[in-house]
Write a structure and sequence with these properties.
2 copies of one chain form a homodimer.
Chain A: H1 7-22, H2 29-36, H3 40-43, H4 50-75, H5 79-96, H6 98-106, H7 115-139, H8 148-159, H9 174-187
The first copy, chain A, binds a DNA duplex (16 and 16 nucleotides) through α3.
Chain lengths: 193, 193
DNA sequence: CCTACCGATCGGTAGG
DNA sequence: CCTACCGATCGGTAGG
């Protein structure tokens, strides 16, 4: 049973769609008001500023990604298993929140200070979690990579285009997608190994 | 010997940096004028509109990517070789034009019709070139992938984060980077193959 | 949640 | 390339 969303949640939801589609700067409060069926001034009864909406979206998503990887890292024993789980977790967060993920990935630069720096620091910490899994794998002989940071960022960027095309109605389920991505990133394209 | 840039080229160059940093919508013609040391109105002696600048950046980069992959595809005999060359070519275009690449990748959605559709169609054609290499590799037994389109897009997205961190002064050269990316994407992380 | 409105800023033009 | 300016629109506030 889904509870009826509060007005504030409705505002955030519609704003997320607009921010993804047109970008934060190109989305006006009048655009948002039109979609909500109210006047622009009325939005300010529920939120303090346009940036507050962006802030809430970005930091909520950051929180979701951390929660997901916390669970994932506890799951596996080998580095390969933990990386596979981390990939699956990341894919699940994106596929469950495609629009918010797009905003999280593309619009954070419109946060002003100090939120901007805080966001970047969170993102860096999250990347560090992947880096750490890769490092362990290299140390115990499971992985072979040119550079741990480089590898972690390549993996993440290989996951982060998902929001551009994923549709719940598609033929691949989130778990299918995660498996395919893990296979590609862990084993590569080549057949003779 | 580099020729002195025309005013139009200077405008494009400064606009590229601003569009990358602040985004197209959040960049005003006054911002651009300030950087150029002239008045906003004076910019219009050289360009027709703000969008024209974006258009020129996006389509020039599209052209660069196509030129690069044309050369790359002629080079190799096996699919693996051609993919490696295509990756190298793509990396070279990005590392030579980090700011314009960022604009090409992130700001194209602010193009109005019909440019918007034309751009997407070019991008799709470019992705098709990678898809085609992957397909050949699968057909002749070199590659094993879950889905050709999926694989091509994962590869490209694994290359397209480069513009966010590459600096010419860094310790990896563009060729080092290309080799590392090819190794990761073709062979995967795992050591026991 | 609305009406009424604010000062600031936007992309762009006219005319030199 | 500048001065002078346009109408439109922006995020946001006052007061109910």
């Amino acid at each position: 049973m889904k509870e009826a969303p509060t007005r504030k949640e409705q505002i955030e939801e519609k704003a997320t769609a607009l921010f993804k589609e047109k970008g934060f700067s190109a989305t006006s409060m009048r655009d948002l008001a039109t979609v909500l069926g109210i006047e622009a001034a009325s939005i300010y009864s529920h939120i303090r500023s346009k940036e507050e909406i962006l802030h809430r979206i970005c930091f909520r998503m950051a929180h979701e990604f951390f929660q997901a990887i916390d669970a994932a890292e506890a799951a596996g024993t080998t580095a390969a298993e933990r990386l596979t789980e981390a990939i699956k977790a990341h894919v699940q967060v994106i596929t469950k929140n495609t629009e918010a993920s797009a905003v999280f990935l593309n619009e954070w630069r419109h946060l002003s200070e100090p939120s901007h720096s805080e966001f970047l620091s969170l993102r860096d910490k999250y990347e560090g979690r992947f880096r750490e899994i890769v490092r362990t794998g290299v140390q115990n002989g499971e992985f072979q990579v040119p550079d741990e940071k480089f590898a972690a960022l390549t993996i993440l960027s290989g996951l982060n285009w998902l929001h551009t095309w994923y549709k719940p109605s598609g033929k691949m389920s989130p778990n299918d997608i995660a498996e395919n991505l893990s296979a590609m990133l862990l084993n590569g394209l080549k057949i003779n190994k």
